[in-house]
Amino acid sequence: MQDLNLFVIFARVVESGSFAEAARRMRISRSAVSKAISKLEKNLGAQLLNRSTRDLSLTEAGAVLAEHSAHILDEAEQAERVVNSLQAEPRGMLKVSASVAFGTLHVAPALADFLSRYPEIRIDLTITDRPVDLIGEGYDVIIRVTNEPDLNLVARKLAPVRRKLCATPEYFEKNGVPQTPEDLIEHNCLDYTLSGEQGYWNFTGPEGGIAVPVSGTLRINDDDALSQAVLGGLGIALLPTFTVGKDLQSGKLQAVLSEYIAVERYVYACYLPSRHVPAKVRSFIDFLLMRIGTVPYWDKDA
Q1: Where is the HTH lysR-type domain positioned along the sequence (predicted)?
Q2: Against a cut of 0.85, is the pTM above it?
Q3: More confident position, 207 or 96
Q4: Where are the alpha helices (DSSP H) in the chain?
């Protein structure tokens, strides 16, 4: 296949009427233009231009090629305009994958506001906790809760994930309020099975890390379902504030031992590295950052 850039240079020469003017318009040297035309003629096996000291004229083959090259140039310029408009103005399909709990509670409810601000964008949102392939599955942005974002992606931190040791006021009234992590041995500790901490809850104290053996009557693999069990008064659990922030703010749940719980994970918006981040990606992430706030809205007064 021929180098399309040679056809573009040829079209510019025909359009401008000289090598020098074509070089000026394309911001390249006159010799580069001359070499490109000679290479195109050699590749095609035909003379395209009659050259004289004063002017240029098209040969029969050149006249045929000029018509097609003009179309190539028009298509290239139109494609450039379309791409530039995508970079300058947020528009087009935005394909997003978000983790189940955070996506359901905080991404999906934000979309109506986002789309009202950017009516030229359409969104395809997938709610899932499974690993996704940005390139293979065509995602523009993935939103995940993790302590180690993929090093091959650009990861923008949306919010810290703070966990609280929560139970209802009624539970604490009946079973007592733990004063130290070791007191949890006497409580019904409801476990999130995907935490990787089965059988032990890890805390940070003045003397360093504390691993407390815990047990309880329920283990669940979903934060939202676990929070419902805690709200029902069944026991005590370590829950992210982005799940139970409203319940802590309203007093339905109470948090204890917060000084022993460190921030270990963050919510990240990840996308493929590029010199030119699409406007739709940039505007979506900036919108989420603005909506969440420097102190996440679910952590205020929680």
Answers
A1: 1-59
A2: no
A3: 96
A4: 4-16, 19-26, 30-44, 60-88, 100-102, 111-117, 134-137, 169-175, 223-231, 241-250, 279-292
Residues 6+ apart with CB under 8 A from 167: 175, 230, 233, 235, 236, 237, 253, 254, 256
CB contact set of 207 (below 8 Å; sequence gap of 6+): none
Angle at 103 between CA 97 and CA 105, to 5 degrees: 170
| Angle at 139 (CA atoms; ends 133, 145), nearest 5 degrees | 70
CATH of 163-260, one of 3.40.50.1000, 3.40.718.10, 1.10.760.10, 3.40.190.10: 3.40.190.10
What is the tens place of the pLDDT at every residue in 284-294? 999 999 999 99
Identify the sign of the CA torsion 86, 92, 93, 98.
positive
Out of 22-26, 38-42, 269-273, give the one with best mean pLDDT.
Answer: 269-273
Q: Any idea which architecture 92-159+265-292 has in CATH? A: 3-Layer(aba) Sandwich (3.40)
Q: Which residues of 241-267 are buried (b: 16+ CB within 10 A; e: fewer)?
A: bbbbbebbbeeebbbbbeebbeeeebb
What contacts 262, CB < 8 A, 6 or more positions away?
Answer: 204
